[in-house]
Amino acid sequence: MEKDIIEVMDQLEIDGGIRNLVEQLWVHSYRTFDSCEGHDFEAYVLCNEGDSWFESNAHKYGLKKIKNMGCCIREFQDEVLKHGLDPNDFVDRRKSCKCGAGINGYSVYRGKLIPNQKS
User: Fold this and answer.
1) Domain range spanning residue 44?
2) How confident is the model at residue 41 (pLDDT cuts 50, 70, 90)?
3) Rounded to the nearest 10 degrees, how much is the dihedral formed by the CA atoms of 49, 68, 15, 60?
4) Is the pLDDT of residue 114 over 80?
5) What's the CA gap between 15 and 36, in Å, rounded?
6) Residue 64 to residue 62: CA distance in whole angstroms
7) Assigned domain for 64 exists
8) Is the residue at 85 inside a domain?
9) Total number of domains constituting the chain
10) Is 50 helix (H, G, I), strand (E, B) or coil?
11) DSSP 67
12) Residue 75 lies in a domain
């Protein structure tokens, strides 16, 4: 990893065990918004855009895309309705749903991270 990339990752506090993956995502034009190597839990990556590389390679890192469920749209609408407002008057800018799936063009991948992979 180049010195400049290491410095950026240090500033962003990207976990050491997931840095190779994040670097690959950046190489493939993905924008990463949140990630964790897992520690005692599952690793995850929240990202969007990209050149479709990760969709084909996530399994090599032990990660799987979390699929959207019926709650993803309903969750936002219910929250707005709770305040007596019309959901059509608001833009849903969330990146993920409480179920763990990515929404609005974002994707969430989770799993047991296989560290230090290079593709």
Assistant:
1) 3-68+99-111
2) confident
3) -80
4) yes
5) 6
6) 7
7) yes
8) no
9) 1
10) coil
11) P
12) no
